[in-house]
Amino acid sequence: MRAARGIRALAGHAHLFERAGDEPRSLWTEALGDPPEVYRERILHSGERVLRRWDPSRSKFGAALTKGWAEPVPGDGERWLYLGASTGTTPSHLADLVGPAGRVYALERSVRPFARLHQLALRYPNLLPILADARRPMEYAGLVPPVDGIYVDVAQPDQVAIGLDNARLFLGSAGAFVIALKTASMGREREPRQHLAAAVAEMDAIELEPAVDLAPYHRRHFLLGGRPTRALFREPGGDGARRPTGPVNRAPRRS
Fold first, then answer.
1. What does DSSP say about strands 147-152 and 171-182: parallel, antiparallel, or unpaired?
2. Closest residue by Cα to residue 80 from 66, 63, 101
3. How distant, in Å, are the alpha carbons of 1, 68, 143, 176, 250 from that of 21?
4. Is the peptide bond before 24 cis (omega within 30 degrees of 0)?
5. pTM recorded for the entire structure
6. Are residues 210 and 188 in contact, defined by beta-carbon separation less than 8 angstroms?
7. Which of 216, 135, 218 lies closest to 181, judged by CA?
8. CB under 8 Å to 146, separation ≥6 — which residues?
């Protein structure tokens, strides 16, 4: 590990930092896990903080931030639902951002990556893995409370609809909805920008921020999102009512 120079906190973010003078921009999260390294990312010390480089080539959210995405971003103490958590690369950075008082409910449906996600959660006490299919939110409704944000990273043709179904069930009216749009999973009959336009139209109940093209880090990918309007909860199947929640499926804490 090396000592950090020129590191500064981003305004409004308790656990997100950048290093002055780096080109392209380099972003770092304050490591919550022990040991801090998750995927061979660079580690720096800044005072008492241990910082992890958010590699834009390994994380679509990291790429969006590198390219100027500003909001929504998980904040200190918030609860986020992550759909399509895989082995936990990006979820670990979101867990850093929400801090020890926050929670990331990390949903993954495939057993093999979930096994690695579960191992990661053993040293990230605020990262809560759930083995389930994002298409069936009622099956895990007892494991996820109302959340402040939803991040969608699923390789399905109907990825927007999957995210919106979860938003109607779990997201608060002042929450955040973010999706890493994978246009290659939406069919080759349209160009990526056409898929983006269709997704924007489908998300008409979200007050969207301008989308970010994630190339060259992730080709045919875009990050888009924003805040829900009341219309989201009035759509069919979504009256905004909360389902009863049960015990959270926590990973075992460190002894």
1. parallel
2. 101
3. 20, 15, 43, 31, 40
4. yes
5. 0.89
6. no
7. 218
8. 79, 170, 171, 172, 242, 245
3-state secondary structure at position 152? strand
Q: How far apart are CA 255 and CA 244, in angstroms?
A: 31
CA distance 44 to 7: 10
> Cα–Cα–Cα angle for 17, 250, 123, nearest 5°?
50
Q: Report pLDDT for 243.
A: 42
Residues 89-126: tens digit of each pLDDT? 999 999 999 999 999 999 999 999 999 999 999 999 99
| CA distance linking residue 208 with residue 119, whole number of Å | 35
Residues 126 and 98: beta-carbon distance below 8 Å: yes
The residue type found at 186 is M
Beta bridge partners of 213: 222
Indicate the SS3 state at residue 249: coil
pLDDT score of 134 more than 80: yes
Which of 168, 162, 167 lies closest to 181 in space, CA to CA?
162
8 Å CB contact between 77 and 231: no
CA dihedral 82, 87, 93, 95 (to 10 degrees): 60
